[in-house]
Design goal:
The protein is α+β, with helices and mostly antiparallel strands and 211 residues long. It has three domains: 39 residues; 67 residues, Alpha-Beta Plaits, CATH 3.30.70.20; 62 residues, no CATH class. It has seven helices and six strands, in the order ααβαββαβαβααβ. It has a two-stranded antiparallel sheet with strand order 1-4. It has a two-stranded antiparallel sheet with strand order 2-3. β2 and β3 form a beta hairpin. The N and C termini lie far apart (45 Å). It binds iron/sulfur cluster (2 copies).
Length: 211
């Protein structure tokens, strides 16, 4: 029905809530629900909505086969077992980079994957991370090197240097509750030195050059 003046749309009726709850249950029935081990736990739309809709049990049997995780890309990890097939990454990639990601198969076998079912390291991925930025769950995550960094920081025979991107001077401050837009660069330098880095390099004017 096309929208028209006076049209009333119910977005929170009993029926609408019941339908949303069923959709969540169906998504979770084919989902790897190991929240405690998931990179996105605490920052995941599926987890948030499941909590909001009071999901405590799932009426449907677990119905998905376990697919291999793709950790071949140096920057990103793709876990198809957590994908909810929203298509946000496919769109982001096709609008900003190319067509590295796409839908494959049909019905319950549908997956989102790099072209021709290849690994993410074997396609034209430029590691921009836009797919990860729009993914609402833990299906595409940034590869973490945190443990390697801790290990190098505790190595007395190694000089460890860090180089930061321009955007973090404000973004990190906001994450730690500073006023929006406040420049936290001084705090960042001293925190990194306290963590044990021997030198801190700040990317500044150089970041404007490739634009
Ligand atoms: S993607 Fe979300 S719901 Fe799924 S395991 Fe991770 S945190 Fe939990
Ligand atoms: S954005 Fe995430 S959940 Fe959505 S299709 Fe892509 S990988 Fe799957």
């Amino acid at each position: 029905m096309p929208p028209e003046p006076g049209l009333k749309i119910e977005t929170n009726s009993k029926k609408v809530r019941a339908i949303r709850k069923t959709v969540l249950e169906l998504l979770l029935a084919s989902h790897d629900r190991e929240c405690t081990l998931c990179e996105r736990s605490g920052n995941c739309s599926l987890q948030t909505y499941s909590e909001q809709y009071g999901l405590r049990e799932i009426r449907y049997p677990k119905n998905a086969e376990c697919l291999p995780k793709d950790e071949t890309n140096p920057s990103l990890v793709r876990d198809p077992n957590k994908c909810i097939l929203c298509g946000a990454c496919v769109r982001a990639c096709s609008e900003w980079q190319g067509s590295v990601l796409g839908f494959a198969n049909r019905g319950s076998k549908t997956v989102v994957q790099p072209m021709a079912g290849k690994n993410l390291a074997d396609v034209d991925c430029i590691y921009c991370g836009q797919c990860q930025a729009v993914c609402p769950v833990g299906a595409i995550t940034i590869k973490s090197d945190i443990e390697n960094v801790w290990s190098e920081l505790s190595n007395p025979d190694k000089k460890v240097v860090v180089q930061i991107a321009p955007a973090v001077r404000v973004a990190l401050g906001e994450m730690f509750g500073l006023e929006k837009g406040q420049n936290a660069i001084g705090l960042i330098y001293s925190s990194l030195r306290k963590l044990g880095f021997d030198m801190v390099f700040d990317t500044n004017f150089a970041a404007d050059l490739p634009i």
